[in-house]
Amino acid sequence: MNLEIILVLIYSYFLGAIPFGLIITKVFLRKDIRKVGSGNIGTTNVLRTGKKSLAIATLIFDILKGYVSVIITSKYFNDLVYFSALICFIGHIFPVWLKFKGGKGVATYLGILLALSFKFGIIFGLTWLLISFIFKYSSLSSMIGALIVFVYSIFLNNITLSIFLFITFIIILYTHRENIVRLKDSSETKIKL
User: Fold this and answer.
1) Cα–Cα distance between 161 and 91 in angstroms, integer?
2) Residue 189 DSSP symbol
3) Phi, psi at residue 186, to the nearest 5°?
4) pTM to 2 decimals?
5) DSSP state of 188
6) Which of 41, 57, 140, 191 has the fewest Cβ atoms within 10 Å of its own Cβ atom?
7) CA distance 17 to 3
């Protein structure tokens, strides 16, 4: 393993592992977000505190860490862009500081998409909003959005990109496995946009 791979691995993981939802709610609400709602540190659960401003801040910072990781790598280690993106994404989901129990990765995934291709970010964002508006389920919107982006990528004849997007789609399904069960049981919590 060469020095470049180790360097990219370190900063990508530790950027991804910053638990902004936990930090923001601790600072502004004096609450541990892991003891609220679903116990997740992501935007949707921060929204359950009733503070939309904190949920928006969490969303922005989680997007930014995915975006920044990929932008840095594309500038200095372009051959390792997809590696960096995947490690950052995994860092968010499995942060070392929280005993590897992080968020579901969707906002960080969006930041990664925006850095890889602004078009992908827009496609995901619009799909998410449309599905959320129709069904009111954040989890369903995230999974369908990731699927649509992957399917779209197939038509671009970039095998590496498609493989990356397929892997991230599978990971998003994994992080939403409990939501899938609740969707089947019609017990999934709806969101209020």
Assistant:
1) 20
2) P
3) 60, 35
4) 0.93
5) P
6) 191
7) 21
